[in-house]
From TrEMBL:
The keyword Nucleotide-binding does not apply. It comes from Pygoscelis adeliae. InterPro entries: Lamp2-like_luminal, Lysosome-assoc_membr_glycop. This is Lysosome-associated membrane glycoprotein 5. It is a single-pass type I membrane protein. Keywords: Cell membrane, Cell projection, Cytoplasmic vesicle, Endosome, Glycoprotein, Membrane, Signal, Synapse, Transmembrane, Transmembrane helix. GO terms for cellular component: dendrite; early endosome membrane; endoplasmic reticulum-Golgi intermediate compartment membrane; growth cone membrane; late endosome membrane; lysosomal membrane; recycling endosome; synaptic vesicle membrane. GO terms for biological process: establishment of protein localization to organelle. It is found in: Cell projection, Dendrite; Cell projection, Growth cone membrane; Cytoplasmic vesicle, Secretory vesicle, Synaptic vesicle membrane; Early endosome membrane. The chain crosses the membrane at residues 161-182.
Length: 204
């Protein structure tokens, strides 16, 4: 799900959008256009290596975005100040960073700001319910193991943490009861020595 917002319009990505792309070993490109190419969204992906504590590891990322929009198009722009085609682009972008060989998945909404050729307008790209994999595709329409975005990981942890804490607490209670039962049983089997000396029999 893609959505683009400017000061004048809220532009959703149409279901009937045309898609094409270029797939390479280290560079890939996805182009989406709709409403007779009044709007065109280009996503550029880059695969590269990084030095980490575990050594050299490969990652891919969304490296650049280019959005072309026509303010003369009347579906979303009603009273444009300067109607015509404009282009909005990202600047030094590094988004959707994913380990090589995995797909990127994020249900949460993310916002990426773009710089427009029309300086009177600000453009923001809103991404939600995203599943994408530009490299290392093993079969058509088949995603590799997903790499969840940090927001989704945090939400998943917040959902599972109470269950984990409940299970741990229940386990602690069971262990405590078992230890108490064993201790009580061992204590009951020991010979009880009376503490009151009057109960001892006098010798002789």
């Amino acid at each position: 799900h893609f959505q683009l917002i400017t000061e004048q319009a809220d532009i959703p990505l149409s279901r009937g959008a045309e898609m094409k792309g270029k797939c390479g070993t280290n560079e890939s490109e996805l182009e989406i256009s709709w409403l007779e190419q009044a709007y065109t969204l280009k996503l550029f992906f880059l695969k590269e290596g990084h030095n980490t504590s575990r050594g050299q590891e490969a990652f891919w990322r969304l490296s650049r975005i280019q959005f072309t929009y026509d303010t003369a198009e009347r579906t979303y722009f009603k009273d444009a100040v300067s109607p015509g085609k404009h282009t909005a682009s990202s600047h030094r972008l590094s988004a959707l960073v994913t380990p090589a060989g995995k797909s990127y998945e994020c249900q949460a909404q993310q916002t990426i700001s773009l710089i427009s050729s029309d300086h009177q307008k600000s453009v923001q790209l809103l991404l939600s319910e995203v599943r994408v994999q530009p490299f290392d595709i093993t079969a058509d329409f088949v995603f590799s193991e997903e790499h969840k975005c940090p927001v989704d990981q945090r939400e998943q942890l917040e959902e599972t943490l109470p269950l984990i804490l409940g299970l741990v607490l229940g386990l602690v209670i069971v262990i405590t009861l078992c230890v108490y039962h064993i201790h009580h049983k061992l204590t009951a089997n020991q010979v009880q020595i009376p503490r009151d000396r009057s109960q001892y029999k006098h010798m002789g």
